[in-house]
Amino acid sequence: MSTPIISVQDVSYSYPETGKKQALADINMKVYQGEMIALLGPNGSGKSTLARLLNGLLLPVKGEVIVDGLLSSDNQYTWEIRRKVGMVFQNPDNQLVAALVEEELAFGMENLGISPEEMKRRIRKISERMELSEYLEFPPHRLSGGQKQRVAIASVLALEPEVLVLDEPTSMLDPGGRKRVMLELERLKQRGTTIVLVTHDMTEAVMADRVMVLEQGKLAFQGSPVQCFSKIEWLRKIGLELPPATELARRLKLKGLPVPTSPLHVSDWIEYLCPQL
After folding, report:
1. Is residue 270 part of a domain?
2. What's the confidence (pLDDT) of residue 144?
């Protein structure tokens, strides 16, 4: 494969307040340009910690994180790395800072020195895509949780980062909002944006090119969604759900019915059932 845009080499991390207890231990992973990675794991497995290491918000206590050839622990590259790797947090209140939605979308671009004309173009474009045009003059604190999350995502997308890291971005959204976000991520992927998605939603994970599973701070699995969700007993043991299509197959197999092997999508079931009918 090509040179990775992000390389994590023997990385460990401990939060100062926890002493020597490691949140992550000896993580090795590579992220390649244009791919979508789903980062899974039970609560406390280190997913959010790893996400924050990818754009320099946290620095490893051991090992190296290299972003497009730049070492995250080298202070001279901090802002360049954060320009390349955009971060969306689970709680939008952690990243909304402006008095108005329009100012929020402009905030990061102002820091990058983007021209006013280009800023207006991007704001108009991204607010339309994220269905925020009618809220541009609203204070973010007057919006619902789901609307705030869409603003937070839009403010990062307006920077047009090469890599987008999202920490459970749809957890506060209703089904319609979740669908809009996932369609936008699919659109970005098709245009070459690299995506690292931390999620508990297995229907989101099956969209990824590769799945990585953390368990107790260690990288326990890397592979395709098919490979991952074929490990049914292990996933259930560590507390992860299966995609609905896969869970249906598991239950039918328990009843002795012949079913397809590890279907991931409803379309897999349709493809299997139509010839039977």
Report:
1. yes
2. 86
Cα–Cα distance between 127 and 42 in angstroms, integer? 34
User: What is the number of structural domains in the chain?
Assistant: 2
Q: Are 122 and 247 contained in the same domain? A: no
Res 170: pLDDT:
85
Whether residues 255 and 118 fall in one domain: no
Residue 20: per-residue pLDDT: 65
Both 169 and 263 in a single domain?
Answer: no
DSSP-derived letter for residue 3 is P
Instruction: With cut-offs at 50, 70 and 90, classify the pLDDT of residue 105.
Output: very high
Range of the domain at 269: 243-277
> Tokens representing 176?
């319609």
User: What pTM was computed for the model?
Assistant: 0.87
Residue environment code for 30-65, b if the CB has 16+ CB neighbours within 10 A, otherwise e: bbbbebbbbbbbeeebbbbbbbbbbbbbbbbeebeb
Which one-letter amino acid corresponds to residue 256?
A: G
Q: What is the pLDDT of residue 19?
A: 65
Query: Which two structure tokens, joined as six digits, stand for 12?
Result: 């460990």
Q: Which two tokens stand for residue 54?
A: 């990818």
Cα angle for residues 199, 202, 203 (degrees, 5° grid): 110
Please tell me the predicted confidence (pLDDT) of residue 1: 54
Residue 94 and residue 160 in one domain: yes
In a domain, 1, yes or no: no
* pLDDT at 253 (0 to 100): 81
Contact 96, 148 (CB under 8 A): yes
One DSSP character per residue, 235-277 reads: HHHTTPPPPHHHHHHHHHHHTT----SS--SHHHHHHHHHHH-
- 73/98 same-domain check: yes
Residues 6+ apart with CB under 8 A from 11: 24, 26, 27, 28, 53, 60, 62, 63, 64, 65
Decide if pLDDT at 49 tops 60.
Answer: yes
